[in-house]
Every structure is written in C-alpha cells, then in structure tokens.
Amino acid sequence: MRLASVSNFAATIGDWCRRVPEAIDAVLKNSAQRLAKEIDAELDRQVYQAPPSPSGYKRTGFLRASFVASTSAMPQLIRDNPGAEINADAVGPIVLVINGWDGGGTLYLGYTAKYGAYVHFGAGGAAPRPWVTLAAQRWPQIVREEAAKVKQRFGL
Fold first, then answer.
1. For 44-90, how does the pLDDT look when each residue is reduced to its tens digit (9 = 90+)?
2. Domain of 62?
C-alpha cells in the first residue's frame, strides 16, 4: 500500500491545516500509524483468530512479523517462512519509520513474506483473506477522524 504525497493529503483534510504546517504532519503521521495498526489488527482477526485451515498449516506468526514500512520502495514478497514460531511486534518498527518520515515523500506499507499475496487473495482452494484491502478502505475515515483529533488538539 502506497500513501499519497502531502499536497494530495492536505487537500483531503481541508484548508485549516495549511495555516499550521505541524498540523499536516500530525494528521499524516497519526493517520499512517493508525492505518498500520488497523492492518495488523485485521490480519490478526482474519488469519490468526480464524479456525485452523483444513490443510493443517501451522501458523507461525511470520506473515504478521513480515509487515514493514519504507520511505524508499514498496516492500517485496521475497522472504521464505522459516517454519519456526515468531512472536515479533511488526507495528513498533513501522511506527518508528513513520515518525522519521518527513511526509514530503511516499510511505510504503507492505509485507515481505513470499506467501502474503496467496493468503490475501486466496490460492489452492483457500478462501481469500483481504485484510489489507479492508483496512485500506478505511483510510478516508481514518484521516477524517485523526484530522478532527488534531484540529481539536491544536485549537483550530
């Protein structure tokens, strides 16, 4: 998922934020952090809290741990599942990338687990689990809600 540039974003949240550049940055980063958290929560709900698959596939947590953010390029689906359980917090490092993001460029959120697209879109008879698509559809709502919070916090 690729998040748009600041100029498009500012048009989305309204003119009030143009008067206070810090407000644009706050809405942008808060919205991106919330989106990352919602993507992770949706993956947990659709995959990790779902009944075990009939194939007997053992959930390792690798897909969840492969969630990353980048300011230079879209993460690629290149990593094989090591087969061992992984209990990593993917969102923590993503928040750090978002906090360091200047907002003038593009922020990319994605997965590096090779099989991520198979889980998302379904394959081999398995039903699709479109957690990214569902969370991404909430982006406009997330931005509106975060903008309202920032507007109130800045007294605008």
1. 999 999 887 777 677 889 999 999 999 999 999 999 888 788 877 88
2. 2-153
H or E segment to which residue 133 belongs: helix 131-137
Angle of helix 139-153 relative to helix 21-43, nearest 10 degrees, comes to 140
DSSP string covering 72-123: SSPPPS-BPP-SS-----SHHHHHHHHHH--SSS-EEEEE-BTTHHHHHH--
User: What single letter denotes the amino acid at residue 82?
Assistant: P
- 139 Cβ neighbours under 8 A, 6+ residues apart: 31, 35
State the DSSP code for 48. I
Q: Is the pTM of this model over 0.85?
A: yes
If we measure between CA atoms, which residue out of 140, 143, 1 comes closest to residue 68? 1
How many structural domains is the chain composed of? 1
Give residue 2's region: left, alpha or beta (phi > 0; psi -120 to 50). Answer: beta
The C-alpha angle 102, 76, 1, rounded to 5 degrees, equals: 50
The percent of the chain in helix, strand and coil, each rounded to the nearest 5, is: 55, 10, 40
